[in-house]
Design goal:
alpha+beta; elongated; 115 residues; 22% helix; 2 helices
């Protein structure tokens, strides 16, 4: 990639300064906390889901990759579908107690079951 690639600066106003150099903000990835440091909350949710119940895990602090890996592991162990994005994991069905136990076994000791 070039130092001043124009595609990275599409929404930037033109500068008349000949010495101007656009500095791109580096994407800062958030460091993933250890499982024992995570404050996860496990709850049931049916808002905007057509009446279907899902188990919602919120409060994850870390990178999207680690979130997706945890979501994939939980989905595999429960044998259901779901998704992991925006710092929350959605597992299809009423599996709150099972998810809570799986997280405890995986070392997430500060996990709370809500509702």
């Amino acid at each position: 990639m070039k130092k001043n690639d124009w595609k990275e600066r599409l929404n930037i106003v033109y500068s008349t300064n000949p010495n101007y150099s656009y500095e791109m903000d580096e994407d800062q990835t958030q460091a993933t906390l250890e499982p024992s440091q995570q404050n996860l909350r496990v709850q049931l949710d049916r808002k905007n889901r057509g009446g279907k119940v899902v188990t919602l895990i919120t409060g994850f602090v870390g990178s999207e990759n680690d979130l997706k890996n945890l979501g994939k592991e939980l989905k595999n162990k429960c044998g259901v579908g779901g998704s992991a994005k925006d710092h929350e994991i959605i597992i299809q069905g009423d599996l709150k107690q099972r998810i809570f136990e799986l997280l405890k076994k995986a070392g997430y000791t500060k996990t709370k079951s809500i509702g």
